[in-house]
Amino acid sequence: MSLAVDDAAWRSAWRRRAPGDKLLLCAGLVGCALALPAWPGSVLVALTAVALALGPARVPARTFGRAVRWPLAFVATGALTAVVSVGDGGLGWAPDAAARAGSLVGHAVAGTAAVLLLATTTPVSDLLPVLRRLRVPAAVVEVAAVTYRLLFVLLESLSTIREAQAARMGHSSVRRSYRSSGALAAAVLTRSWDRARRLQEGLAGRGMETGLRVLPEALPSSRAFLAASAAGLAALVSLGVLAA
């Protein structure tokens, strides 16, 4: 079992680039998305992130589009709730509804595109050592690593149980599909909880009181990439400020 975003990261043309370089670029894009005005700053940031992902990084457009669907739905929901005001007369539109919604959507979409650029070009196994070097608390890094590993356990359990249900005609009607979906959710959560408990007990039995240390793959940093990233971010800031 695999995740489309994870597969895209391993197959990306930027896979062999230093994860620290990509992290600096994407962090700079997120900073620009938050600091620059929604128009045209956030629009430029979003277009830059998408162009880098589909162009030099060679991330499949279908994968990037599927990955951005749910964040965009969340952004749209948040924008809708932000422009509605509740008063004595009931529900109504806020006085500056259009400007508020546009600013919220612009910043959120640009930041999401920048984060997805990192996610689709950098595997988690490359990113975790960088977080350790940046002195992110060890507990946070370990939780992220365990959560990442358990995602595949969850996917495997989901696929196995769904295949068994399909073989028993569990999705032959709408009523059976509802019942099967409920049973599927319960079984997957139960299996995942049991697997996590057994993993914790196994590590405790081996005396694992600290994080599991592994030898990360050494990927050299590129001065040309860093210089191009700095120049591009400076250009975005200049265009965003001058055109605002």
UniProtKB/TrEMBL annotation:
Localization: Cell membrane
Pfam families reported in the protein's UniProt record: CbiQ
Membrane topology qualifier: Multi-pass membrane protein
Keywords: Cell membrane, Membrane, Transmembrane, Transmembrane helix
InterPro entries: ABC/ECF_trnsptr_transmembrane (IPR003339), Cobalt_transport_CbiQ (IPR052770), ECF_CbiQ (IPR012809)
Main location (coarse class): membrane
UniProt keyword annotation of Cell membrane present: yes
One GO term (biological process): cobalt ion transport
A Gene Ontology term for the protein's cellular component: ATP-binding cassette (ABC) transporter complex
Keyword Transcription regulation: no
Superkingdom: Bacteria
Transmembrane segments: 23-52, 72-92, 104-124, 224-243
PANTHER family in UniProt: COBALT TRANSPORT PROTEIN CBIQ
Descriptive protein name: Cobalt/nickel transport system permease protein
